[in-house]
Amino acid sequence: MGAVRIIENESQFYHEMSTMGTKLVIVDFTATWCGPCQRIAPIFEQFSLKYPNAIFLKVDVDKCAEVAAIQGVSVMPTFIFYRNRTKLGFCQGADPAGLESKIQQYYGNGDTEDSEGSVTGHVRNNNNAYYRIFGIIFLTAILLYWNKYQQ
């Protein structure tokens, strides 16, 4: 498959996650203003071509703040690894060797062409009101705290 898919909004993120089946999904939580994020972006793109049976997504934390908050992203870049919508692990920072090591750790076991979409009908849907409300409350608390100490 290869190539990085750009996620523009929350619904696109959840849609992409719900259709991946057993494939490894690697999500780069990034920001346009983040220097390290920009430095590792071309390497992330190269990895998407090197590991074609994995899905590579890029999420701008400013465009998709709720998704980033729900996923526990507080440092950029953060790379989170999923399979069947289950978080396998993560790595933070612009470390190409560390990122590739994590990719290799999770790559395989379901990333062959034969298994593509084999359990798509069994993917659990976590896109429910609980997660949305939690994300909104979390972001509200952060904004209130930030506003209090900006004055």
From TrEMBL:
Listed transmembrane segments: 129-146
Organism: Vespula maculifrons
Swiss-Prot/TrEMBL keywords: Disulfide bond, Membrane, Transmembrane, Transmembrane helix
Occurrences of domain Thioredoxin (ranges): 1-124
PANTHER family for this protein: THIOREDOXIN-LIKE PROTEIN 1
Domain of life: Eukaryota
Name of the protein in question: Thioredoxin-like protein 1
SUPFAM superfamilies linked to this entry: Thioredoxin-like
CDD domains: TRX_family (cd02947)
